[in-house]
Specification:
about 140 residues
């Protein structure tokens, strides 16, 4: 087992070294991306998510509602993360029929509207079902 681990370590180190060698000519444009992502996450995104979580925990006392609202926020964040490159800058190449010819802001808005409409419907139905259950008692 020790031999297999050593072999995997050597192969992994060789693959990382080869990747670094290939990255070397593009290092000037790559370093901001390699450092900027984790730095942006640690300085901006993580504290913001923590503050939103704390606020939600204090404002929403029902655990079912909190779970659905958290799921909606997670889905919204994922949609926004996917849409950022498409909204941030225009395409660098001429339009290719069928690829970048969509209205991305409208698509993002529609996607977010669908997510939150589903969340609202589920919460309304859960509230109605919960009230009916307590009325029968």
């Amino acid at each position: 087992m020790r031999t297999v681990r050593l072999l995997l370590l050597v192969l992994g180190a060789a693959a990382a070294a080869y990747g670094g060698w290939l990255l070397l000519p593009q290092l000037g444009t790559t370093v901001p991306w390699l450092l900027g992502g984790p730095l942006l996450h640690d300085v901006l995104v993580a504290p913001l998510v923590g503050l939103v979580g704390l606020a939600l925990g204090r404002l929403v006392t029902n655990r079912l509602r909190l779970a659905w609202i958290s799921a909606g926020l997670l889905a919204s964040a994922t949609l926004l993360l996917i849409a950022v490159p498409l909204l941030w800058r225009p395409p660098s190449a001429p339009p290719n029929p069928g690829l970048p010819d969509r209205d991305y802001p409208l698509g993002l808005t529609a996607g977010l509207a669908v997510v939150w409409a589903v969340i609202v419907i589920v919460l309304v139905v859960a509230t109605i079902v919960g009230r009916r259950g307590t009325d029968r008692s």
